[in-house]
Write a structure and sequence with these properties.
single chain; mainly beta; Jelly Rolls; SH3 type barrels; Membrane-bound Lytic Murein Transglycosylase D, Chain A; 5-stranded antiparallel beta sheet; 4-stranded antiparallel beta sheet; 6% helix
Length: 235
């Protein structure tokens, strides 16, 4: 069996493709093989591949080879990270960010249910005034003085988002404050206790660190699998 389809990415993201099949399967993304057990089936195993897709349409092709009586094939696609341009190294300065998408709605509060106060455009500078509790939304001010909220993935900044004040009226999770613990010979290290609903990506943004470095240091293989109460070492 051969099936073809297409997906559209609205911006550049890293996506995780996950396949569960009982027999041989092969996945192409834009003509490149990303998963292949076509000739060496591994029934019941979860097969994954992480692929960076730029903005626009992309072609998918999946080939399935049935060898036994039972037949099943499941494919899921999940966005796992935003790839923002790497900012040029510079001294710590004002909390400034830049819109990295076109036609960004700035809302009156940190949620899409709030009314739009202004529409911002790509490369507009934004003063970062604060954030919500889990650092998923930023409190910003435009050049003409309009204040509102945007989702953090739409702003490129070298300023550590976790250092911004919480300005949505809620109290921070107490464990979110880095907890210094002794580390022989090297001073202190930071820890974070995972809260319900948190993701590795959001925690990395909170502390201004690279998500993949955070996963590597903590021995995390599946970037989507962390647990409430889990203690993470912050690099």
């Amino acid at each position: 069996m051969v099936a073809k389809s297409s997906v559209r990415a609205r911006a550049q993201y890293t996506y995780q493709f996950t396949i569960l099949a009982d027999d041989g399967v092969r996945l192409y993304v834009d003509g490149v093989i990303k998963i292949n057990t076509f000739d060496t089936p591994n029934p019941g195993s979860t097969l994954t591949a992480q692929v960076v897709l730029g903005a626009g349409n992309h072609t998918l092709q999946i080939e399935y080879r049935e060898l036994t009586n039972t037949a099943y094939l499941y494919l899921t696609i999940e966005q796992i990270a935003t790839l923002s341009p790497t900012p040029t190294a510079q001294p710590v300065g004002p909390a400034i960010g830049y819109v990295n998408t076109t036609g960004l709605n700035v809302h009156a509060g940190p949620d899409y249910s709030n009314p739009v106060v202004v529409v911002a455009f790509k490369d507009w500078p934004m003063t970062l005034l604060g954030r919500n509790r889990n650092a998923s939304w930023l409190n910003v001010k435009t050049e003409n003085g309009q204040v509102g909220w945007v989702e953090v993935t739409h702003i490129t900044t070298s300023y550590p988002v976790g250092a911004l004040a919480i300005t949505d009226g809620t109290q921070p999770y107490l464990p979110a404050t880095p907890v210094p613990t002794p580390k022989p010979g090297t001073g202190t290290t930071r820890q974070h206790i995972v809260q319900p609903g948190e993701t590795l990506y959001r925690i990395a943004i909170l502390y201004g660190v690279d998500m993949y470095d955070l996963a590597r240091i903590n021995g995390i293989v599946n970037l989507n699998l962390i647990f409430a109460g889990q203690v993470l070492i912050i690099p």
